[in-house]
């Protein structure tokens, strides 16, 4: 234990000595003061997000057994791979090669050229896509609330997208990833809230005479079946595969050993609660009529199947949690750009 403590102290001093040489992206994640609880907040925000509201739609193409099996396999495989990645990062940190980001790992494993021109662009595209998707979805939820309050309103979708984007610019002024811990705690609670609302609304509609006739049959057309299965698997894989393990592990105070595993346990306890409850209740209530966003099923032909205030509150929870997810992706996206600009400036 004494040796481990000395290693961690010397590693910490080494990084303090070279802090001025690190780029803005590295400095953003390097503030290593977090606990395993904070790690759980960060992981939950990066993985458990509003796309889980699309899981009933994925079940509509896979059926009961196929949908549940894919969810279970996805949870087991991603938990194992995230934990394994965490152990690899911890091992390299003890060897004196601390990896703060995926690009740092690629530089060490594949070489600097592969790290810069292969892994860097992929992470950039993922963050860029997540920022755009989260901002558009946030704008759509804001417009849905606006139309609930003012059915004849004249405001357009792009106006709400701009408003939501402005909120992202404000939240993105956080000085470090560690500074997001309070926002990510609220994000965790909000995710539990809108998942509970989606589950309760589905159960209410499923037991109501207003609900649609339940049909769990899968399309008999082979081509539709094949494309539906691939689409459903892609939805489930995308929902699970958003963990930013190196960046989150870099925020943990030394010694790191065991803390990342505890954080993953918090994340996957929440993941199991939300993913399975929303997917099963939504598919049970709407069958193969489940839409891409389960909240869209709460309104049919202009008529609300649940109270208007319930839809309003659920959309509010979703917007607020989306803002936390988007700001994490937005800050990582921004620091990728800053890093590239910094390198170009230094090299002339």
What are the defining features of this structure?
348 residues, membrane, 12 helices, two-stranded antiparallel ribbon, mainly alpha, amino-acid transport, transmembrane, single chain, Hydantoin permease
CATH topology value = Hydantoin permease
Query: What's the arrangement of strands in the largest beta sheet?
Result: 1-2
- Largest sheet, strands/sense/barrel: 2 strands, antiparallel
| Strand portion | under 5%
- CATH superfamily placement: Hydantoin permease
| Secondary structure: helix percent | over 70%
**What's the overall average pLDDT, rounded?**
79
User: What structural category characterises the helix and strand content?
Assistant: mainly alpha
CATH architecture: Orthogonal Bundle
Quick overview of this protein structure:
The chain has twelve helices and two strands, in the order αααααααααααββα. With 348 residues, the chain is an all-alpha fold. It is globular, with a radius of gyration of 22 Å.
What does this structure look like?
This protein is mostly helical. It has a single domain (2-15, 23-347), classed as Hydantoin permease (Orthogonal Bundle). It contains 12 helices and 2 strands; from the N terminus they run H-H-H-H-H-H-H-H-H-H-H-E-E-H. The protein has helices spanning 2-17, 24-29, 36-47, 55-94, 102-109, 112-149, 157-171, 181-206, 222-240, 245-249, 259-286, 308-347; strands at 299-300, 303-304. The longest helix is centred in the N-terminal third of the chain and has 40 residues, at 55-94. The chain is globular. The chain crosses the membrane at residues 62-82, 117-137, 157-174, 186-206, 226-245, 266-286, 310-338. Its main location: membrane.
